[in-house]
Amino acid sequence: MLAQQLINGLVLGSIYALSALGFTLIFGVARVVNFAYGEFLMLGAFLTLTTMTITGVDFFIALPLAMGMTALLSVAAYLLAIRPVMRGTDLQALLVTTGMLYVLREVAILIWGTAPRQMETGLDGALEFGDILITHQRLLAVAFLLIMVTGLYALLYKARIGRALRAVAQNRFGAETIGLNVDRVISFAFAVSGAMACVAGSLIGALYATEPSMGGSPLLKAFVIVIFGGLGSVPGAIVGGLVIGLTETLVGAYISNAFKDVFTFLIMLAVLLWRPTGLLGVRST
Asked: For residue range 106-121, what is the model confidence (pLDDT) as tens digits?
């Protein structure tokens, strides 16, 4: 029983970590808390589903196409709405992204309606290891987490653009001084964030349901996770997502589903009291 719950927690934590990766990347590079991130997750799921419906292709072909479309939408949101207020106060950027959240949700309702829809991945069956059972669809979440983390690591530490991303994250004005096109680098970060949101949203749509309000809960979890793990820390987002997923699953199984969110916030508060920068966050100098 415990082993099964640990596997369930790992799957849930993988989805949470995927949801938080793009969120923390934007904060790390642009220093913007993007409250519209959950709606890009929702749009990514709908774009994947719509691509499958219109073209007849399967999930694994539709997903990369939807990732590209969501990345473009994310960049457009940055250029049209977020960039104009980035040199203002943090409150201005917060208000803009919050307003964008409601606009995107209403647009999704106008286009797709409010009825939940199921997304088929084409993966049936399950793997059994003694008393442990994990469906292929849930195993997909873990596989995608490994793929996205590997790809993000290669991007940040092996590619030239990754060095630029890290330079802007460390010191935006210093990066401008040495000749980096900071605006282009941030646009790229928003594109990567949008693509990651699409993956997370499509997995949630496949495992649960695709609907216009589906971005609210992942946004809240992503916010908790990046605070828990450390704002701007990619490893912190991964560790935080897995810890929160395991905590919610074990509390729901052995205590009560009504208390799983309570324990999540208690753990976050305990970490922040012990380490205000988050579990893997770095103190600013």
From this structure: 999 999 999 999 898 8
